[in-house]
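Case 395 in the screening queue. Each case pairs one protein sequence with one candidate compound; here the compound is MU-OXO-diiron. For every case the pipeline is the same: read the inputs, emit a complex structure as tokens, and attach any notable structural observations.

Predict complex for case 395.
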Amino acid sequence: MKKLIKNNVFWVGKTDWELRKFHGDEYSTHRGSTYNSYLIQEEKTVLIDTVWMPYAKEFVENLAKEIDLNKIDYIIANHGEVDHSGALPELMKHIPNTPIYCTSNAVKSLKGQYHQDWNFRVVKTGDKIDIGNGKELIFVEMTMLHWPDSMAVYMTGDNILFSNDAFGQHYATENLFNDLVDHCELMQEAIKYFANILAPYTPILRKKLDEIIALNLTIDIIATSHGAIWRDDPLQIVKKYVEWANDYQENQITIVYDTMWNGTKELAHRIAEGIRSEAQEVVVKVYNIAKSDINDVLTEAFKSKTVVVGSPTVGNDILHTVAAFMQYTKSKKLKNKKAAAFGCYGWSGESVKILNKQMQDAGFEIIGEGLRNLWNPDENAKKAAIEFGKTIAKA
Ligand code: FEO
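Case 395 output:
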């Protein structure tokens, strides 16, 4: 059933309470997600985005209960990714000639995925369509936020920014609006979304945020394509994005490790002890990456000023869990971070050198040469790890 957003604007999306993995298995969604689709019923009827493909039939059936599908004048595809375009093939079976407004890149992505020659209308930033009752939809390209085809739409009169993925969260809710959900959960999902999906594009994001702010638009609602819709102080999330996109860090140090026979684990906890004894106000968090969710740990790394990474040496290399974390972290292009490495070894002992190189490649500033420990830590080695923690805290 459609849900009212404002005046003649309705939510017609899908709340996916069961979703636990997104982008294949790349992104954990502990709190599910929503695929927000919007129906505008002014003099013209407009559908903005659809839902993920598994819910295509249900989406079209529900939509057909609300309106005669033939009455849809315009479809807007803000983004070609399947979680928003997935119901288009089903919908277009019913209304094959209805125009689809999207960017030129979205034509490529939609044709590439669905192999259909629909009635595409290519738009650019500043292009607009009249939807009657004195209201217009103005298109804003959001290139690389987070795909080359991404776009947002601003509705005049009601002052709604349909932002698509930007400002979203993977967060299932029946309550629709940010003032009706748990604020801590909401912000936790928003920063996780930013760190894992948008962080690599912060230079582009900064320019786009400046561009949006310079337009001086009145924004009453930011209607994202995932999670809660921002209607209570909607600019709070824009301000957060400005913070997060500008070399963000909190007073936090995160230790990430994996261990074989608990030697490297012991070092991790002694390093944490050293940091705490030197700087009580620093938030210290310790994660065994083999037992933790990589997206959650990446979010903690994003919040940190320093990330300390440990692995024992195995087969002249590091453990694969730590290697995956380093590769994932590098791909997020985190800025303004320091890093340090540690690990136990029995024979050749290359892990710290390898980790230092990987952290350098990821753009981190390395603190010292790292902490290597032969065999399991004895009392002296534990003291050395505490001192290493103090050095990290001072850096
Ligand atoms: Fe929510 Fe980029 O799709």
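Case 395 observations:
- The longest helix spans residues 183-198.
- The chain has two domains: 3-244, 253-394.
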